[in-house]
């Protein structure tokens, strides 16, 4: 499986995160047999709202592309590297944001992170003004989202609406790894980011 971004053909491995920046020709393809599924994290609601969403098709079936060395590419985040970072952290639950080399979010609108949850443990209960989509890379368990209990396993995808309290619980026998993308960069830039435990008095201007 590959993603081609403006002439660079990037081989995709399970769990990798690959960015397709605006105004770059891109397409997807697969060599060999058998199905493969990937998850797109899109900010289409914003583009439709303003509205600035449109599609331009290349004059040929594919934009010309060559295999690229992506070991140091700023738009490729290998899962092997992210998993190693998560596994170095102490505690039953940990999270790591996907960030550019300068420490900024990968996009001004959408951001992403990965989480590790050890077997038979739970994440902290959280409530925030971002909305998020979770994808289960490995493992199984449940999530309490508001007054609903969601049951999930490897390959499942579920969402957390804004300001819903949520908490994840891992089943016994396997470490859970999540991929998550959210609108935290946009919400933060607009000044709307809040968490339940935040001291709102600190936000008041004198």
Automatic annotation (TrEMBL):
GO terms for molecular function: dioxygenase activity. Signal peptide: none annotated. Keywords: Dioxygenase, Oxidoreductase. It holds the Pfam family Cupin_2. The keyword Oxidoreductase applies. It comes from the Eukaryota. This is Cupin type-2 domain-containing protein. It comes from Penicillium freii.
């Amino acid at each position: 499986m590959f993603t081609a971004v403006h002439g660079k053909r990037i081989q995709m491995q399970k769990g990798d995160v690959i960015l397709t920046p605006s105004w770059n020709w891109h397409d997807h393809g697969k060599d060999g047999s058998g199905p493969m599924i990937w998850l797109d994290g899109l900010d289409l609601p914003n583009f439709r709202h303003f509205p600035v969403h449109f599609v331009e098709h290349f004059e040929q079936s594919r934009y010309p592309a060559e295999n690229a060395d992506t070991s140091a590419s700023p738009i490729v985040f290998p899962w092997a590297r992210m998993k190693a970072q998560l596994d170095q952290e102490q505690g039953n639950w940990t999270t790591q944001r996907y960030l550019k080399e300068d420490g900024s979010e990968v996009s001004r609108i959408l951001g992403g992170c990965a989480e590790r949850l050890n077997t038979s443990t739970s994440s902290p209960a959280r409530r925030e003004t971002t909305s998020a989509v979770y994808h289960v890379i490995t493992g199984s368990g449940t999530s309490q989202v508001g007054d609903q209990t969601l049951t999930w396993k490897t390959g499942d995808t579920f969402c957390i609406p804004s300001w819903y309290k949520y908490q994840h619980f891992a089943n016994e026998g396997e470490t859970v790894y999540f991929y998550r993308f959210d609108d935290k960069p946009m919400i933060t830039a607009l000044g709307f980011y809040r968490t339940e435990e935040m001291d709102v008095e600190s936000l008041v201007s004198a």
